[in-house]
Structures are given as structure tokens and as C-alpha cells.
Specification:
Length: 80
């Protein structure tokens, strides 16, 4: 869910986002689009631009892994 939310965010590679920027972008995407909206955004990108989507998702996965290291203090989205 975090990766999908960051994928759907407006963060770009050229922004060189910090872990805090990554967490804020995820929170914002989830607040605005919701989990399903983020997933739909990802699905549309893979359908329209598959090569670019794969590259972006790989980048996003690395950012999320860095932003949510074990024992770090960060915002956790509510679970249902």
C-alpha cells in the first residue's frame, strides 16, 4: 500500500526526496486518493506506460524501504 501511495504521489526522482518527504507524500496520497485510488493509479500507469511504470515502481520500492526502516518513528496509516 505504501508503494502504491508513493507511486501515485507527485514526488519525482529529481526532487531527491528525504525519508520524511516520502512519508509525507504517502500520507497525502492515502488521504486524498485512498488505498483503492492509489492502486487504480498504479494500474492505469502500468496499462498506459508499462516500461515507465516498472522503472518508477522499482525506484518507489527503494524509497519506501529506506523511509520505513525498522525501529524508526514514522506515521502508520490506520488499518481496517
Amino acid at each position: 500500500m505504501r508503494c502504491e501511495a508513493l507511486f501515485a504521489s507527485s514526488i519525482r526522482r529529481s526532487d531527491h526526496p528525504s525519508p520524511e518527504n516520502v512519508r509525507e507524500a504517502i500520507e497525502h496520497s492515502l488521504r486524498v486518493l485512498g488505498a483503492r485510488g492509489c492502486a487504480a493509479w498504479v494500474a492505469q500507469a502500468y496499462g498506459d506506460f508499462p516500461e515507465a511504470a516498472v522503472t518508477r515502481m522499482h525506484w518507489v520500492q527503494n524509497l519506501v524501504a529506506e523511509a520505513f526502516v525498522e525501529n524508526d518513528h514514522y506515521w502508520e496509516p490506520p488499518t481496517r
